[in-house]
C-alpha cells in the first residue's frame, strides 16, 4: 500500500449507552464502504466473541479500517467500536485516546441515557470532535425531535448538527460517512518524525503470540524494523504489521495517524502493557506518550471449583482468560469451608458475571462463587493504612482507628413519574442527593453519592423494577470516606465460616445477620447432634438459630416398666450427642452458600 496523506485519514469511535445500536451501525458502515461484501456480512460482525453475540453486548473494543471516496478523494476511516456498559468504561477511555472524533449515538425512542451523558463528557474532556447521531429513526414510536432537544439540553450540541440514521435499514449512512470526513479533523502526526505509537489493546493468538493493537502518533513503522517498548523495556523485531479490515490484513508499513496491529513474536501478554509507547530501537532520546490510568478493580469475590479436584483446571482457565483481559486479576486463596480457590478482582458486577460465564463455557469448569465485596481502606491504631479486599482481612475492632468505604457519584435517569420511588431507593441505601436536572419535560436526572457496596449488590435491578425498566444509571468513583462499618461473622457450631463473612454498615448488621442465620438453618441438613448457627460482630453474638438434632427413639423397646430404665437410656443418648458435637464436623452443602449469598445481596 502506498503512503497516504495524513489529511486523508479520519480516526473516530462510536460511543453510546448500552443497546443503542453501535455495533449495528458499524456493520452498516462496513457494508456501505465496501469493506465487507454482502455475502460475508453477518449481524454485529465486530462482536466476534460467543458471549458477546449471545448477550447482544460489546465487551471488547474493536478496530477496523475502511476506505471511502468523497468528492474524488479516497479517505481512510479508522473506526473503533466500543462497549456501552459502565463496567467497560476502561475500554471506552482507551478508544477515546486514539481518536480525533467521537460519534455520539442516541436511540430515537429511549433518548439520552445516563451512559450517553458520561461518554459524551468523556469525549469532550479528550477534546474530540463530537458527531451527534440519532439512531433507529425507522422505529414506529420514534420521537426524533424530542430526542434532539434532549441532546441539546444535556450535552450542549446544536440540534441542527444532529444526524438522523437507521442502522437497521441503512438510511442516512451516506450522509454520516460524509459528515465524518467533513467534521472529524485529520490526525496531527508527522510520518517523517521519530517513531511514536500508542498500544491501546492486545489479544493473544495461539499461533502468532501476542498481537498488539497500536495507534500511530508519529513516524512510520515497517516490517523487519527493530522497535522498543518503553515501559516494558524490551526490544523486538516487527514480523508482521497491518490493519483490521475487519480481518487482519498485512501491510508493508503503518504511518502516523493510522490504526493497526503489530506481531513481534511476543510469547506472553504480560510483556505488553496497555498504554505503553513503541519507539524505534535505535532512538535513545525517545519520549513516552501519555498513557492510560490502570483499570481500577472495584469488585472482588472468591471463585472455587465445585469439585475440589479441579483446582489446577481452574487455574489454567483463569490464566487463559487473563491473557485476553488485562482488567481482570486473580490470586490463590484457601477457605476452610470451600477448600482451595482464587480471589478475583473485577471492574464491576457485569464484568464478574461475564468472566464466570466465560470460564464455565470456554473451559467447562463448575464454579462456586462467594459474595461479591468491594475494596475498603482501614487505618490501624499504629498509623498503618491497609486495603481490605475480603472480610477475613479486617483487623480486630480494637486495632481499627478508621474504616473507609468507596463512595461513587451515581447519575440516575428516569421518567418524571418515577422520581419518588428512585429517591426512596437511594435514601434506603444511605445516599446523599447532589442535584436534580430536567433533561426534558418528561425525563429527569438525579445525582446521588452512594456507597459502592450498595450500588454493586442490587441497585441496578431495583432501579429497573422501580422504573418499570425505563431507568438507567452510570457511576464514577469519588474516593474513600469514613463510615461506621463492621465485619459480620457467621459461626456454625462455634466455628467461624470465613466464606460467609461480610462487611456491612453497623445499622444493617442485625437485620442481615438474622436473615443469614435463618436461611442457613433451613439449608443445613440435620445431623445427629444439635447445631448452633450464629451471627456475630467481634465476640458479640447478634442472632442465633438452632438446627435440631435427629433423634433415634432409644426407648422404643421398653414396654412400660420402671421410668428409671428409660431415663438411663436418654442420659446415655445425651452423652453420646454431646461427644459427637465436640468432635463431629458440620457438613455445609454448597447450595447453602449460594442461598446465603443470595440473601446477603437481596435482603436490603
Uncertain regions spanning at least 5 consecutive residues: 43-59, 599-604
CATH topology of the largest domain: Rossmann fold
Question: What's the total count of β strands?
Answer: 32
CATH architecture of the largest domain: 3-Layer(aba) Sandwich
Q: What do you see in this structure?
A:
The protein has 13 helices and 32 strands. The chain has 604 residues and is an alpha+beta fold. It folds into five domains: 6-183, P-loop containing nucleotide triphosphate hydrolases (Rossmann fold, 3-Layer(aba) Sandwich), CATH 3.40.50.300; 196-280, Elongation Factor Tu (Ef-tu), domain 3 (Beta Barrel), CATH 2.40.30.10; 299-370, Alpha-Beta Plaits (2-Layer Sandwich); 377-482, Alpha-Beta Plaits (2-Layer Sandwich); 486-602, Alpha-Beta Plaits. The strands form six sheets. Strands 11-10-16-7-8-15-12-13 form an eight-stranded antiparallel sheet. Strand 18 (329-335) and strand 19 form a beta hairpin. Helix 9 runs antiparallel to helix 10 (452-466). The N and C termini lie far apart (61 Å).
What are its keywords?
604 residues, alpha+beta, Rossmann fold, Elongation Factor Tu (Ef-tu), domain 3, Alpha-Beta Plaits, 5 domains, 8-stranded antiparallel sheet, 6-stranded mixed sheet, 32 strands, 33% strand, elongated, disordered C terminus
Amino acid at each position: 500500500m502506498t503512503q497516504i496523506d495524513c489529511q486523508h485519514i479520519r480516526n473516530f469511535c462510536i460511543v453510546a449507552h448500552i443497546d443503542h445500536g453501535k455495533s449495528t451501525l458499524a456493520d452498516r458502515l462496513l457494508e456501505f464502504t465496501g469493506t465487507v461484501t454482502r455475502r460475508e456480512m453477518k449481524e454485529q460482525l465486530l462482536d466476534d466473541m460467543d458471549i458477546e453475540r449471545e448477550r447482544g453486548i460489546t465487551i471488547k473494543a474493536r478496530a477496523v479500517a475502511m476506505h471511502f471516496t468523497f468528492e474524488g478523494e479516497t479517505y481512510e476511516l479508522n473506526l473503533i467500536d466500543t462497549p456501552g456498559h459502565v463496567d467497560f468504561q476502561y475500554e471506552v477511555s482507551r478508544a477515546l485516546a486514539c481518536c480525533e472524533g467521537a460519534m455520539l449515538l442516541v436511540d430515537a425512542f429511549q433518548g439520552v441515557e445516563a451512559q450517553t451523558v458520561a461518554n459524551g463528557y468523556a469525549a469532550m474532556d479528550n477534546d474530540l470532535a463530537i458527531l451527534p447521531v440519532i439512531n433507529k429513526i425507522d422505529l414506529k414510536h420514534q420521537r426524533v425531535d424530542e430526542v434532539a432537544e434532549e441532546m441539546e439540553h444535556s450535552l450542549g450540541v446544536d440540534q441542527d448538527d444532529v444526524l438522523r440514521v437507521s442502522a437497521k435499514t441503512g438510511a442516512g449512512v451516506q450522509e454520516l460517512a460524509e459528515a465524518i470526513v467533513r467534521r472529524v479533523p485529520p490526525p496531527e502526526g508527522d510520518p517523517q518524525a521519530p517513531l511514536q505509537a500508542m498500544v491501546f489493546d492486545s489479544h493473544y493468538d495461539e499461533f502468532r503470540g501476542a498481537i498488539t493493537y497500536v495507534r500511530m502518533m508519529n513516524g512510520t513503522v515497517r516490517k523487519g524494523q527493530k522497535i522498543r517498548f518503553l515501559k516494558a523495556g524490551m526490544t523486538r523485531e516487527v514480523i508482521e504489521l497491518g490493519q483490521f479490515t475487519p480481518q487482519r490484513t498485512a501491510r508493508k508499513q503503518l504511518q502516523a495517524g493510522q490504526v493497526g496491529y503489530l506481531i513481534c513474536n511476543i510469547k506472553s501478554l504480560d510483556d505488553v502493557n496497555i498504554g505503553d509507547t513503541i519507539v524505534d530501537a535505535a532512538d535513545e532520546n525517545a519520549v513516552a506518550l501519555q498513557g492510560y490510568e490502570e483499570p481500577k478493580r472495584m469488585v472482588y469475590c472468591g471463585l472455587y471449583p465445585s469439585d475440589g479436584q479441579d483446582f489446577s483446571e481452574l487455574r489454567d482457565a483463569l490464566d487463559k482468560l487473563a491473557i485476553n483481559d488485562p482488567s481482570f486479576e486473580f490470586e490463590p486463596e484457601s477457605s476452610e469451608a470451600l477448600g482451595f480457590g482464587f480471589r478475583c478482582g473485577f471492574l464491576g458486577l457485569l464484568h464478574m458475571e461475564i468472566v464466570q460465564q466465560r470460564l464455565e463455557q470456554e473451559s467447562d469448569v463448575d464454579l462456586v462463587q462467594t459474595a461479591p465485596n468491594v475494596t475498603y481502606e482501614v487505618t490501624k491504631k499504629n498509623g498503618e493504612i491497609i486495603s481490605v479486599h475480603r472480610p477475613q482481612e479486617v483487623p480486630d475492632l480494637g486495632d481499627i482507628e478508621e474504616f473507609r468505604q468507596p463512595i461513587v457519584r451515581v447519575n440516575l435517569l428516569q421518567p418524571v413519574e418515577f422520581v419518588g420511588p428512585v429517591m426512596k431507593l437511594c435514601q434506603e441505601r444511605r445516599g446523599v442527593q447532589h442535584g436534580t436536572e430536567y433533561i426534558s419535560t418528561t425525563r429527569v436526572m438525579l445525582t446521588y453519592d452512594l456507597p459502592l457496596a450498595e450500588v454493586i449488590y442490587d441497585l441496578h435491578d431495583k432501579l429497573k423494577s422501580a422504573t418499570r425498566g425505563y431507568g438507567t444509571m452510570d457511576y464514577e468513583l469519588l474516593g474513600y470516606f469514613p463510615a461506621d462499618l463492621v465485619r459480620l461473622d457467621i459461626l456454625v457450631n462455634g466455628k467461624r465460616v470465613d466464606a460467609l463473612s461480610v462487611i456491612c454498615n453497623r445499622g444493617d448488621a442485625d437485620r442481615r445477620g438474622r436473615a443469614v442465620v435463618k436461611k442457613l438453618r433451613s439449608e443445613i441438613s440435620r445431623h445427629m447432634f444439635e447445631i448452633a448457627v450464629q451471627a456475630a460482630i467481634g465476640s458479640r453474638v447478634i442472632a442465633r438459630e438452632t438446627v435440631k438434632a435427629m433423634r433415634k427413639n432409644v426407648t422404643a423397646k421398653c414396654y412400660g416398666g420402671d421410668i428409671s430404665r428409660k431415663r438411663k437410656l436418654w442420659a446415655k443418648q445425651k452423652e453420646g450427642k454431646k461427644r459427637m458435637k465436640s468432635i463431629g464436623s458440620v457438613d455445609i452443602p454448597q447450595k447453602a452458600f449460594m442461598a446465603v449469598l443470595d440473601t446477603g445481596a437481596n435482603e436490603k
